[in-house]
């Protein structure tokens, strides 16, 4: 008995003499994107760190004070050629950890600590921004062609991404994966349509700040921005899709206010908020022009959102049957009509199951595509191929005694083509109605 007490006391003494670390690196995650590589260190508490860079070869060296390492850096998933390796080196002292990022070329790193936000705890985020080695090829048109017969450009935005999973379903489904799948299906449909072309704000699993997404659409001179999300709420009961447009004031529903808070939460998950710098000297003129542009964009967004709702309700329950409004950063581009489509409540068990079904995602993408096509067939942007075709299209004003079958025979077209060209759901036409002849 005496020996046992002595042994216990000895163990306690040895434990007291061992270094007690204030923090611990629990895991490391790498998120590559086209212009940035993000490395995230998950820690037990707020990190105390410093860093410096070295050349020949290029490295970023991070010193964590009072920190141990619980992860095998050799097993960290890294498929990015820019970040060659993550390793340790000799620390400044026995109670520190030194991590070295071996790079393929020089970079100016950006480091910032992030507080706990579900589903993550304390983090140190390391951003390594870079420009692609080879700039993408740009096709330059002549002055005669630059504004004629161009494609209608649809910017497709898959919400969240990277270390921001978005909402999480009851069985662990990540919103970011569902919406990227739908976005890629919509992209394929748009690119398959003559006279239309899609651009994606993100093509993989990486984070883009909400304010950056409309900026990417603007860089591609998009005619429309469609942002795709999956809704969530604090209880599992709500279900159904909805379509959102920009509100310049307070959101018009509790769900809208919830979405605004969720977007701010996503900014915390993804990284530091971006600062928008307006350097326009003619302030009041700029405000007037922007105001007029915003009014047009909002009117267009509202019209298109109604068409999306009418298409979506054919395949899924709608939580809201009219366009909703909220002050969401992704919708704030003054010169690009923008809508945000919530494809369902991922927090609802049945809708989570539906969203995990590939055929259901295909139908959702089809509904957005059909609505977009309907809208731009009726109101094609100036200078596009569709505008050129519409201006050269024949029209006919219906007179007494005329029917679709009579007109189809007269113009040598079939009835189904007539109905499709005029968005008709029946064979009934009205006297005085102007029909487009395909």
Descriptive report:
With 438 residues, the protein is α/β, with parallel strands linked by helices. The chain folds into 3 domains: 19-129, Immunoglobulin-like (Sandwich); 152-268 and 283-378, Aminopeptidase (3-Layer(aba) Sandwich); 393-437, Roll (Membrane-bound Lytic Murein Transglycosylase D, Chain A), CATH 3.10.350.10. Helix content is 32%, strand content 24%. The chain is built from 10 helices and 17 strands. The chain has helices spanning 2-17, 175-192, 212-219, 254-270, 283-312, 349-355, 358-378, 385-391, 404-410, 415-421; strands at 23-33, 36-43, 49-54, 59-64, 67-69, 83-89, 97-103, 110-114, 122-129, 152-158, 196-200, 224-231, 242-246, 324-326, 338-345, 394-397, 434-437. The strands form 4 sheets. The protein has a 6-stranded mixed sheet with strand order 11-10-12-15-13-14, with helices on both faces. Strand 3 and strand 4 form a beta hairpin. Helix 2 packs across helix 7 and helix 5 crosses helix 7. The longest helix is centred in the last third of the chain and has 30 residues, at 283-312. The radius of gyration is 28 Å and the shape is elongated. The N and C termini lie far apart (100 Å). Residues 14-18, 133-146 and 272-282 have low confidence and may be disordered.
Quaternary class? single chain
Give the helix/strand class.
Answer: alpha/beta
What fold name stands as the CATH topology of the largest domain? Aminopeptidase
The share of residues in helices is 25-40%
Order of helical and strand elements: HEEEEEEEEEEHEHEEHHEEHHHEHHE
Largest sheet: 6 strands, mixed
Q: Specify the CATH class of the largest domain.
A: Alpha Beta
């Amino acid at each position: 008995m005496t020996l046992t007490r002595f042994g216990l006391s000895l163990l306690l003494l040895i434990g007291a003499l061992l270094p007690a670390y204030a923090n611990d690196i629990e895991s490391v995650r790498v998120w590559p994107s086209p212009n940035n590589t993000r490395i995230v260190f998950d820690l037990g508490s707020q990190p105390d760190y410093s860093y410096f860079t070295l050349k020949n070869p290029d490295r970023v060296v991070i010193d964590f004070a009072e920190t141990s390492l619980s992860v095998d850096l050799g097993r960290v998933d890294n498929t990015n050629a820019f970040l060659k390796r993550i390793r340790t080196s000799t620390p400044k002292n026995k109670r520190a950890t030194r991590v070295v990022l071996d790079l393929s070329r020089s970079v100016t790193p950006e480091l910032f600590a992030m507080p706990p936000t579900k589903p993550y705890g304390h983090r140190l985020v390391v951003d390594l921004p870079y420009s692609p080695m080879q700039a993408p090829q740009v096709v330059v048109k002549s002055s005669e062609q630059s504004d004629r017969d161009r494609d209608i450009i649809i910017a497709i935005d898959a919400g969240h991404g990277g270390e921001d999973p978005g909402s999480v379903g009851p069985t662990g489904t990540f919103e970011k994966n569902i919406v990227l799948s739908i976005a890629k299906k919509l992209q394929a449909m748009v690119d398959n349509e003559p006279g239309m072309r899609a651009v994606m704000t993100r093509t993989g699993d990486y984070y883009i700040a909400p304010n950056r997404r409309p900026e990417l659409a603007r860089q591609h001179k998009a005619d429309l921005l469609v942002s795709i999300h999956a809704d969530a709420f604090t209880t599992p009961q709500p279900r159904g899709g909805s379509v959102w447009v920009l509100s310049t004031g307070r959101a018009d529903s509790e769900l809208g206010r919830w979405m605004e808070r969720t977007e701010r939460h996503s900014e915390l998950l993804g990284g530091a908020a971006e600062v928008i710098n307006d350097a326009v000297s003619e302030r009041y003129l700029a405000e007037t022009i922007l105001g007029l542009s915003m009014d047009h964009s909002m009117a267009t967004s509202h019209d298109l959102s109604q068409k999306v709702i009418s298409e979506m309700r054919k395949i899924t329950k709608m939580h809201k049957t009219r366009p909703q409004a909220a002050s969401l950063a992704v919708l704030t581009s003054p010169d690009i009509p923008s809508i945000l489509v919530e494809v369902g409540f991922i927090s609802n068990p049945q809708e989570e199951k539906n969203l995990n079904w590939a055929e259901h995602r295909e139908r959702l993408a089809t509904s957005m595509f059909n609505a977009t096509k309907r809208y731009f067939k009726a109101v094609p942007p100036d200078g596009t191929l569709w505008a050129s075709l519409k201006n050269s299209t024949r029209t006919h004003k219906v007179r007494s005694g005329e029917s679709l079958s009579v007109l189809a025979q007269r113009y040598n077209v079939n009835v189904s083509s007539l109905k499709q060209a005029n968005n008709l759901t029946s064979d009934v036409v009205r006297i005085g109605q102007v029909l487009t002849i395909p």
